[in-house]
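Hey L., structure's done. Input below.
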Amino acid sequence: METEDIKNGQISRIIPLSYKKYGEGGRIILFFPDDEDSCEQLEQQGMIESCRPFLETGRCQIYALSTLDKETFDDLERPFTERVELYEQYVHTLKQTLLEPLKKENPYQLPLVAGCGRGAFHAMNFFCRFPDILGGALCISGFYQLDLLLGHNMNETAKENSPLLFMNHEWAAKHENDFIKSRIILSCGKSEDSKTAFLQTLEMEKLLTSLEIPFFIDVWGEDVTATWPWWNKQVPYFFENLLF
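Output:
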């Protein structure tokens, strides 16, 4: 396990980010936390232990990422435009300081992204924005429009970070070759607390189908809640299909 700080001065603000690395070999998976900034969350919630068989056999390495959710999604006192711009800076910081170097290091096996809850939004957003430098996405109990996290205010930057809004036929045609080698997995439960995620997942299913982008969807039962006990079961289950 390693802990690293990420800083980048090439954009208008230096965004300090951190990640924790687990495992020494295999496919790199960039894993976003759910509802907090901390890269400690996966270990604290039992996800690393759930994925230990994949880590110990060298099938994957997990980079548990930090986010700026507290400053963007949760800080209701901060002006909307400032929160959106800060998220955009987060996106480009992570791209420039981690995603691009990882692609350069191994261009034939691109990193995957994964997340549950809010983490699923991050994962899908990063994959759809940069399908040329990422190899796939595992998204569980997710939602895919930024207005569901920032309120109903939207501007162009917010739309550019909302996969359900910016993905279209022109965008799909531009990245057609990228999707040939990638894998997208969507999942959610049908419990009452998963209602929004369920509807968003169905919307993403319709959109990907219309754009002829390959994907796999698996909707679990009405007892499956959007909580860590279930996510700790779902993620290892889908790793078997994701780590090809």
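The chain has 13 helices and eight strands. Strands lie at 2-6, 17-22, 27-32, 60-65, 112-116, 136-140, 183-188, 216-219.

-- N.
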